[in-house]
# Entry
Amino acid sequence: MSKKSIVLVSSIIIVVLLIALFIWPSNFWIPNSTKKGTDNYVEEPASIKDVQVVILETFPVQVNVIVNGEFPDACVENLIVKTQKAGSTYNINIIRRLRADAICAEVITPFSKTIQLDVTGLKAGAYVVSVNGVTKTFELQSDNILKNTGYLEGQVEIGPLCPVEPCNLSQDQIEQAYMARKIIIYTLDKATTVSTISLDSSGKYRIALARGSYIVDINRIGIDSANLPDEVTIRTGEITELDIQIDTGIR
# Structure
């Protein structure tokens, strides 16, 4: 090979290497042993700034916990809420679950969560709510117990949530879709609202009702359609199940 040819080949190799270094994705050059696995997750507690306890004027009483907090960056989509009751204390843990290789903008980002406590059957008295170590107290002025009662419970399924699959909504966005819907209990003639129930983040609900018959419906958002309204009968000491399917109309 002539000297001129060698110089030409060397020049081509250098150009190719430069293109690879400055134009191709940098991950191409990271050895597999140094990459973070995409299936690995990290969890960390949320920083809580304020906790409020709101007692709704219903019977049986409903209690909501409104939590305000913040994260040091913009990744706040996948929040997980876990609630446990020990004696007169409700322990609530709020954490976020991220991929270990997640890239988050470094900007302080606030968040707000409303959590409904299960207070059915509680006696009058003082109770404690602890959210990631931040505590508040609330007091029930009278027993939250109905005589001759039964329970209505079920699972609400909402979909589709996206016009195409796969649906790339974050867990927080999916939870918000469920928590935006509320189940409404009416008297048989629908003249009176007996109670309004919030769903939990997975679409489950449960409420104590005096024995009798009721009409169950749900607030509709946009062009929602559902297998409601429906009539249910509550019997003393029994659980009546009513699962609900909501078609969002998204196509």
Observations:
- Residues 20-38 have pLDDT under 50 and may be disordered.
- The first strand starts at residue 41 and ends at 45.
- The radius of gyration is 27 Å.
